[in-house]
Amino acid sequence: MRSLLCLAFLAFVTPALAQAQVALAFPVQRTEPLRDGNNLFTGLAVANPTSGDAQLTFKLLGSDGTLLAPAKTELLKANQQLAFLCDQFFGLNAAQATRGWISLESATRGVVGFFLVGDSKSTILDGADVSYRPLIQQIFPEIREGGGAFAEIHLANPSDTVRNVSLQVIGSNGEPLSAAISREIAPNGNLSARLNELFPGLSGAQNGYVKATCHNGTVGFELFGNNQVLAGLNSLDPGSRARVLYSAQLATGGPFFTQLTLVNASSQVATVTLIAYGPADPSQEATGVWVPHPRAAQNQVTRSLGPGQKLSASVADLFGFPASESEITVGWIQVESSVAGVVGNVTFGDPQGTFLASVPLSGESIRDLVFSQVADGLGFFTGVTILNPSATQAANVILEVFKNDGTRQGAANIRLGPRTRRARLLREFFTDDGKNLEPQVGGFIRLRSDNGILAFELFGNDLLRFLSAVPPQVIELDSATPPPAPDPY
């Protein structure tokens, strides 16, 4: 069952290095016993959507930068995928606690991957996309405290020199809630600690965030939740120059809530305009026109955020969506800021606390992307949400599904009108296109579009005991090579 979970749930984005040697940094590896025979695990999935073979070297590294297990080398041929549980792959004792991070090295540009953290009883699961892009400054936007709640910070140092990191808790009003602390991270080492370990005695920080600064850069990730749910999120980059951000996720009412978080990491006052979009006719969500949300009491909201300030609110409260225990409101959100440096994420789950997931807001549309894992069948489902944020242009998308041996399982044609979102189970994209998709656990999904799109993937089990959100893995191309235009199948 744990092997199936690994094949069903993993997440990380892969911006490749400019150098010939590409490295992906998975900043967290957690294996430890929980209660009643339950174990925490970390799973990885890596895909090679390129036309050539890729030699991969995996290194499991501890906080002091030393190898926790012998390095492993794998050959991943074109269009093949590899997924594994870390304890099985590296020969660890699943009943013994292991903390560290994983470095993936390959000379092949375009290899992508992601990871997930979950438990063997299938009650918690989430992760994030991976990259090798150390950040000088980064924001950990989610703080949880009290009643078994927690937030856990992970920072990896993918260099051969010591990195000194400064961490500070900032309140929603932009003022510090703690003194800045300094931590030294060994060469090729990592820092892994809960917030109450880093800042003993801290309280009243629930609405704040953590700011980390390292002049040479680190790769960051956070886990947060409580004894029942777990969510994972890559740290946010305050150096982003995007002034328009998007959330392809908006679901409220019935068994769902969505929480929007924004942090103004700039030194200026930011005026942010939030617009919720939805189908003009809910019965024609897939093919109809999308407009400023007709179910919102106010589908456009403006807020002012001073330097360092944070906004966190449910989308139901922000936009005045009707409260309903039986009816679900869906859509997407556009965030436009007057200044660069505003970052954010959406966290969603159910009010009963059965599942929780989080994804960052997107600032750039993409024409060629991958989801490095498929788990559709055997009690699991895979969902994909695709958004065309353009106000004027349609997007013609090809969705391809590959088995882990590189065989293409099928392809579906998807047309998205301007400002249109399509959210479907993976198999439904094929039935919409008059085709069938066989159940599949393992392999990967590739999306190619003639215009920029945004997307994320959902994993869950059929009973919705857990839900994991996976950002897309971007295929890095040489600057002189344009993304391929989709060709019909």
What would a concise description of this structure say?
The protein is mostly beta strands and 489 residues long.
How would you explain this protein's 3D organization?
The strands form seven sheets. Strands 1, 2, 3, 4, 5, 6, 7 and 8 form an eight-stranded antiparallel β-sheet that branches. With 489 residues, the protein is mainly beta. Among the domains are: 134-240, TM1070-like (Hypothetical Protein Tm1070, Chain: A); 241-362, Sandwich (Hypothetical Protein Tm1070, Chain: A). A hairpin with a 4-residue loop joins strand 14 and strand 15. The chain has five helices and 36 strands. The longest helix is centred in the N-terminal third of the chain and has 7 residues, at 2-8.
Keywords:
single chain; 489 residues; mainly beta; Hypothetical Protein Tm1070, Chain: A; eight-stranded antiparallel sheet; 36 strands; globular
